Amino acid sequence: MVLAGAAFSESGWMKLAPDADLGQTVEGVEPGDIDNPGGVALIRASKADAEAQECVQGFVLDKWVEEDEEVGLIKVDAQGCDLRALVGLRKTIERCRPGILFEFEEGLARLQGDSWLHYEGFFNMLGYGLEEQEKVGYKNNWVAVPR
């Protein structure tokens, strides 16, 4: 199944974040804060934004997973929205206890108002342990496993 939209923690409109390389900023995020300048992140959009520019619908993935469907692995690479996508899968995660692969990109996560403490809190609440995985020269890949 292909869903035309963005996985998020709640339903609503999403738009592309301003281009940090052009000096535009989102409140609390300076251009130099983005640790993946090639990353394209989505942020919440207002109804006015949705009417004035191209936006996509954000949706909660739990609504698309059947109650009898088993999920053994979740892989997220959502340019700073990883936690928001996982929050939208909370019921599925609690029911199925899958392994989870995700990225943490501090600057892009900040666009959502998230920090590493938010990620730790989410996984602790669900009873998951975290293990960092390292790619050559790039340390932001994580594995979450049920305890």
Q: Strands across the major sheet, in which order?
A: 1-4-2-3
Fraction of residues in β-strands: 25-35%
Instruction: Provide the structure class.
Output: alpha/beta
Q: What's the tally of helices?
A: 5
The helical percent reads 10-25%
Distance between the termini: 31 Å
Largest sheet: 4 strands, mixed
Radius of gyration: 16 Å
Uncertain segments: 20-25
Oligomer: single chain
Please count the beta strands (DSSP E, at least 2 residues each). 8
Task: Tell me, rounded to a whole number, the average pLDDT.
Answer: 83
Order of helices and strands: EEEHEEHHEHHEE
Features:
147 residues; alpha/beta; 27% strand
Structure commentary:
The chain is of the alpha/beta class. Helix content is 24%, strand content 27%. It contains five helices and eight strands; from the N terminus they run E-E-E-H-E-E-H-H-E-H-H-E-E. A four-stranded mixed beta sheet has the order 1-4-2-3. The longest helix has 11 residues, at 116-126. It is globular and about 45 Å long. Mean pLDDT is 83; it is low at 20-25.
Q: How would you concisely characterize the structure shown here?
A:
The chain has 147 residues and is of the alpha/beta class. It has five helices and eight strands, in the order βββαββααβααββ. The protein has a four-stranded mixed β-sheet with strand order 1-4-2-3.
